[in-house]
Design brief:
Chain lengths: 338, 305
């Protein structure tokens, strides 16, 4: 695997103007993705993972504003680009797959038209070449009779097929990076595994960087090279998938892992794990750790300030005032029930 | 597509038959036609004679089938006033009315669609408010009053445009402005809300994520979806313009169907009135059928079910 960095983000923050004030959707997010690598961003609804991806695509809603120290794709600074220049990169060097395949394709145009369009828009070739590329990619995403499918309309295809079309569409210009925002959440369970396998094999084949956004740790375990756990706008833990699963350093990550039902592990009569409380509102000034009200290990200093990510080397980092060892000694009542 | 077509066609015919029955009965229910034809001082015998002459003494259904049979073969009877064949009278004037309707709807759309699109991409800005202001003006001002203002300005003061008749294109300018401004607001607001809706949808986000030119996103991906209800409204408005322009045709002395309807009602020329009602209803049905077909062409979900 090449070690070339495709996307580099440093200190990305997104604020959204809402009637109640300013919502800090993403705070000081830093990440990078290498060629052929999969970074999973995991977190519950509203943690800022989708907003972060839209910020990288420069597709934020009008009410949202973005600040960042670095935002670079293939070494090219994105922050200084005009909207027109950015638009030239979207669909070409960076592609995005969305959650709901049923509504993500335009209902009034043929699939072929929608695939060819992106190829021609970015000046890759004429309609004939675009058609050949589309047919080639449809075969790649495992669609039989691609010629017939290309002349169909979205409503004639199932959800799984439509998501394959979306995958093929993002691959039309051979992008360096694909962002997939919950690509399998809206699909049947049987289609989920197939679609993920497909995404993974194509990503390896085309040596594309992949940011996979999900709330499903099962998806993370299957797909991720590295994982970033987000909570309430902050990255709380980063590491390789193996490290994070085997040895979570942040209490939120620990909680998430304990919420996964594992057949056979649970004692009869015991409850499935859950994290008590709800996500805090992110409007106005945020002070202290955003997780402290749900955390079993919180101490008074947690309310003072949010700590910086603690680097453990080799890209491993977590954001907690206490180390896992310190937490073990302060543990008084395990609120995360097993 | 063939099934869809057949289904629509079949419904249209049923509606046409129903409308013909209603048009026929309404006039009969409005009073004793024979008594009205005979005049105020007519005796019972004279009324009975007139009723017999015009076949009004026969049972209603016999009269209907008689009329319907002739209507299908293109014979709509003769005018009681001029004794001309009604079909000829109407078709002679239909040209003027159709011209006026198409000019007006074209003007309305030319104003409404760009304004609606602009308002939708810049919601709650001065552009949005200005187009809303224009829409409120167009909708609030009674068209006969607006017509009179135009006549005062362009006809009387400036003497740029002729104020009556239908000989040249210039004769159509003021009536077209009047009706065009009148129908513009509904199209504009429908474009605006339709576009706002569509611009918010996932597939527009996809189009942007593909890096498409903003104009392409707007006019290919968004407008094509937002235009569907506009096509349906076009049928309704064209129907209204064909039938509802009586006042404007009268003001500008355009010798169209509306004007003929007005004259015929005043003269109690019931075969003409009845035929106008029927023909305008038919054109309405045809327009609706047409707009269904256009929508089916534009939206594969309708066409392919």
């Amino acid at each position: 695997m090449s070690q070339e960095i495709v996307l580099e983000v440093k200190d990305l923050s997104v604020d959204i103007n809402v009637p109640a004030g300013t919502l800090h959707a993403v705070s000081n997010l830093s990440l990078h993705v290498k060629k052929g690598e999969t970074l999973c961003i995991v977190g519950e609804s509203g943690c800022g993972k989708s907003i972060a991806s839209l910020a990288i695509m420069n597709l934020l809603p009008r009410r949202a504003s973005l600040t960042a120290k670095t935002l670079a794709l293939e070494g090219r600074d994105l922050l200084s680009l005009s909207e027109a220049e950015f638009s030239n990169l979207r669909g070409d060097r960076i592609g995005m797959i969305f959650q709901d395949p049923m509504t993500s394709l335009n209902p009034v145009f043929r699939i072929g038209n929608q695939l060819e369009e992106v190829y021609m828009e970015h000046g890759k070739g004429n309609r004939k070449e675009a058609r050949e590329r589309a047919e080639y990619l449809l075969e790649k995403v495992g669609i039989v009779a691609p010629k017939e499918r290309l002349s169909q309309y979205p409503h004639q295809l199932s959800g799984g097929l439509r998501q394959r079309m979306m995958i093929a569409m993002t691959l039309m210009c051979d992008p360096a990076l694909i962002i997939a925002d919950e690509p399998t959440t809206a699909l049947d369970v049987t289609m989920q595994a197939q679609t993920l396998n497909l995404l993974r094999s194509l990503q390896k084949e085309f040596n594309t960087g992949l940011i996979l956004i999900t709330h499903d740790l099962g998806v993370v375990a299957r797909m991720a090279d590295r994982v970033m756990v987000m909570y309430a706008g902050y990255a709380v833990e980063i590491g390789t998938a193996v490290e994070v699963f085997d040895n979570p350093n942040h209490p939120y990550t620990r909680g998430l892992i304990d919420c996964i039902p594992v057949p056979g592990r649970r004692k009869p009569g015991s409850k499935l794990g859950s994290i008590r409380g709800i996500v805090p509102a992110l409007v106005g000034d945020i002070k202290g750790c955003t997780f402290r009200n749900r955390c079993d290990f919180s101490i008074t200093q947690c309310a003072d300030e949010i700590v910086a990510l603690k680097e453990l080397g080799k890209g491993r980092a977590f954001r907690c005032i206490l180390t896992p060892e310190e937490r073990k000694t302060t543990l008084q009542n395990p609120g995360i029930t097993q | 597509m063939a099934r869809f077509l057949l289904h629509r066609f079949y419904i249209s015919i049923l509606v046409a038959i129903t409308v013909s029955v209603i048009a026929f009965s309404l006039l009969r229910l409005s009073g004793d036609l024979a008594a009205e034809l005979a005049g105020e001082d007519a005796t019972e015998d004279e009324i009975a004679l007139i009723a017999h002459q015009y076949g009004l003494d026969r049972p209603l259904y016999v009269q209907y089938f008689d009329w319907a049979k002739n209507a299908v073969s293109g014979d709509l009877g003769r005018s009681l006033f001029t004794n001309e064949p009604v079909a000829e009278m109407i078709f002679e004037r239909l040209g003027v009315t159709i011209k006026l309707a198409f000019y007006s709807i074209t003007l309305g759309l030319i104003l409404a669609i760009p304004l609606g699109v602009l308002a939708s991409i810049k919601p709650n800005t001065w552009i949005d408010r200005m187009s809303l202001g224009l829409a409120v003006f167009g909708q609030a001002i009674p068209n006969f009053f607006f017509a009179l203002l135009l006549i005062l300005l362009f006809g009387v003061q400036l003497r740029w445009l002729p104020i009556s008749g239908n000989d040249t294109f210039a004769h159509f300018i003021m009536p077209t402005m009047t009706l065009g401004i009148g129908v513009m607001p509904q199209f504009m607001r429908l474009t605006r809300t339709g576009m706002l809706d569509v611009l918010d949808s996932d597939f527009i986000r996809t189009a942007r994520a593909k890096g498409l030119n903003p104009m392409r996103v707007l006019f290919k991906h968004a407008l094509r979806n937002a235009i569907l209800p506009i096509v349906s409204l076009m049928a309704v408005v064209l129907g209204f313009l064909l039938g509802g322009t009586v006042i404007i045709e009268s003001i500008f002395a355009l010798n169209g169907v509306g004007f003929l309807a007005f004259e015929s009602i005043m003269r109690q020329d019931f075969p003409v009135v009845q035929s106008i009602v029927f023909i305008l209803s038919l054109s309405y049905i045809l327009l609706t059928l047409f707009s269904d077909l256009i929508n089916a062409q534009l939206d594969p979900r309708i066409r392919l079910g």
